[in-house]
């Protein structure tokens, strides 16, 4: 385990606050993959800015058996065409943003290829976003589950998808902010599509 570092969860299109923490602790970061999968978290959902305010995009997962499923073993469900829904939502919400067209060809394949495991889907998306943000990070993962840590900062429960955050965030231009005002701590794609290469300087 990495001393003086942090353990982070693996999220789907993580919120801006996640990248702020990641930037603070890099390169001494390890990602949790051995935990029992917690429901209703950013592990399989992301919030973007729609014309009606914050919109949650949820990746459906296959319901496990009575035994708890480890995060790395959680499988994505394709019972309905959620990929098409997510991609259409991203296009509808960010087509007018300054940099959506700059990035869309790189994101599009994630909504065409069917990944079996949520963790792999999230990891490859994270690697793509890190490359856009010019953040160099060698991804390391937990080998066993630890209930608590003594020598590193445990951020596995630091980000809650269902409650407001206390993260203080500088405002930046958002596509619908004239209608709804600034919405903080949305998915990193909101920052990326609106700020482009300047996103890393924002962090």
Automatic annotation (TrEMBL):
Domain of life: Bacteria
Any Pfam family matching the protein: WbqC
Protein name from the UniProt record: WbqC family protein
